[in-house]
Amino acid sequence: MSVCEEREEEEEEEEEEFFNTQIHRCLSEMIDSDDLSDEPSPGSSCVSMKSDRSMGIPPNLSDGPAVTSDPVVDHGGEFRITPGLHKYAVDLTLDPNTAHTYLALSEENRKVTCVYVSQSYPDHPERFDVYHQVLCGESLTGRCYWECEWSGGDVEISVSYKGIGRKGGSRDIRVLLPYICSEQDSNVFGRNEKSWSLFCSDDGLAVLHNSNRTAVSAGPGSCKRAGVFVDVSAGTLSFYSVSDTHTLTHLHTFTHTFTEPLYAGFTLNYVNSSVSLCHIKQHTHSD
């Protein structure tokens, strides 16, 4: 290795160490100032990032599985998507075997729409049969980032253990939609210890876990595109709103010791509402 290459490597390590120190310091300050959300469930906590500091994702995080450094998230609101975050982008598809019969899949299983007519899906033990929900087929390991767009009525963008309930439940979807469910339910994303959700509507946004609901703000304008970043080994799950100019606004970060495989999932509460998984392209921005 040449002297220049050695120096480059040293600078990259120093920069990564700096960002890691910054995120730990910011988290500590927020916890010390009691800037926490609702009462956390055992083994987990919900951290709402509200500091006025701002940091970008370091562009030189090492390629390949990253297991030694923490994710660098924005603590001041907005930042541009950078190559450092894009290297964790994953290509997800919806699993037809989990889709409720009133959810229609299209665009090579990358879009789901709530419909009037029941779909002719075969019986399957993993199918949701009460609430209008669907899971993706790919498990989330290491660090993963993905984006989705929603339209129509209220939807929920979730991350869930595969072991979430599928059959039956304490409510009938024809009587009470899950988005107004405030009690715990083993079958509904965000209403149990097995799942975490971002509730999206034209009236506002909220995050949910174990039926604890926290309102969040995306700033000016409506949020129709969301980004999700999970670091399984670090135990963090972050939700972002994504603008038309690909600027991310941090909404909320959950911290939890994940003990089961994680999957992306969606709830669609109204007919004609839809969610589409996005193809993430590289965007280059100058500071």
TrEMBL record:
It comes from the Eukaryota. Residues 1-20, 29-69 are annotated as: Disordered. GO terms for molecular function: zinc ion binding. InterPro entries: B30.2/SPRY (IPR001870), B30.2/SPRY_sf (IPR043136), Butyrophylin_SPRY (IPR003879), ConA-like_dom_sf (IPR013320), E3_ubiq-ligase_TRIM/RNF (IPR051051), PRY (IPR006574), SPRY_dom (IPR003877). Residues 1-18 have a biased composition (Acidic residues). It holds the Pfam family PRY. The keyword Ribosomal protein does not apply. GO terms for cellular component: cytoplasm. SMART domains: PRY (SM00589). CDD domains: SPRY_PRY_SNTX. Keywords: Metal-binding, Zinc, Zinc-finger. PANTHER family: B-BOX DOMAIN CONTAINING (PTHR25465), E3 UBIQUITIN_ISG15 LIGASE TRIM25-RELATED (PTHR25465:SF5). This is B30.2/SPRY domain-containing protein. It comes from Phoxinus phoxinus.
